[in-house]
Each structure stands twice: as C-alpha cells, then as structure tokens.
Amino acid sequence: MRRLYVNRDTMLNFIARLQASFPFEGNLYLVGESIQVFEGWSDVSRCLEFTAEIDPQHLKGFLQIVRSLSEEMDIAVIVESPADIIPLPKGFKERARPAASASTAPLTIYYFDPYSVAFRLITRGDEPDYFTVLAFLTQGWISIETMNGLLSGLLPQFNKETISQDPAEFRRKYRGLLQMWREMEKKRRGEIEQ
Is the pLDDT of residue 47 over 70? Predict the structure, then answer.
C-alpha cells in the first residue's frame, strides 16, 4: 500500500536516487504541494509532483527510472507540467526558481514558475490546491496584481480545449481564491491590530 504522504526527506531521497540512476543532464521542476514541502512551508504532500526537461532520446529511460523508484519507495509520483493543463503565461521560463539545497548534477532542480503553478492549481480547484496558492501569496512568491496582469493575457486563450473546463468555471474558481485571500488578509490584519 502506498504511503499517503511524502515529506521533504523522502523527496530528497527520491531525487538523490534519481540523480544516481540517471546519468544524463536535464532540469527537474517541482510543482504544486511539492514546492511547499521542499521549502519547509508544509510538512507533507500527497505526492511528489514535478515535470522535467530531458533530451527526448533519454526521456523514456528517465520515466522508467521514475516509475521504478516510485514503486520501490512506495510513494505517489506525478510527472506533469502545468503546460499539460493550461496555456502558460508569458515569461514563465524566467520565473522558474532554483531549489535551494538540492544537488545539481546531472539534474538541476528548480521550482516551476509559481504563477503557472498557481493557475494550474486554480484550474484543478481542490481545497489543498487553493491552500498551496495561498502559501505562494503569503510567502511573497506571487502577487494578486501580477496574477491579474498575467491572466489578462491568458484568458483570451482559455477555452474548453485549452484548460479542459469552461473558462467561466476558471473565473469562478479564481474569484473564490481571491475571496479566500481577502479573508486571510483581514484575519491577519485583525491579529496584528490586537
């Protein structure tokens, strides 16, 4: 039976074993809750979630190693890019962040653009997804103003084919996230004033 949660030590162990088994260069980008756990904002994640830039001739072998390690370590691993779900906002590559304290050879470890991750999580819309986006806001990795600006360029590209849902549903979910953020900010300000 698979472990229900993955902690930072498990993630580091998985990445170290992946590094040792895969001799080719590439980039591994953590996404979703995995970013929170790796940064220490949360203790556990439901899975290890990442995407990778791997030379196409080595991709099949890379994915076989990932599957094998997932089974050996008894953890859920999802290899998915936000680009698989949504159009990516302009400048997403430049907003990727290096992951501190991760070994760098042969795979360099990054965090995928937090705005792209946020939009992908809003599209999925599970409660833990919203909390991950709220964590990005709380930590200052993203801002509402920049999200709104990036969305103004993205929304015309959203349709049922590009995001697998009605764009109106995305807008509703985004408004719900903004309401959650306003409530958090009100509560935080109330606690500061007391």
Answer: yes
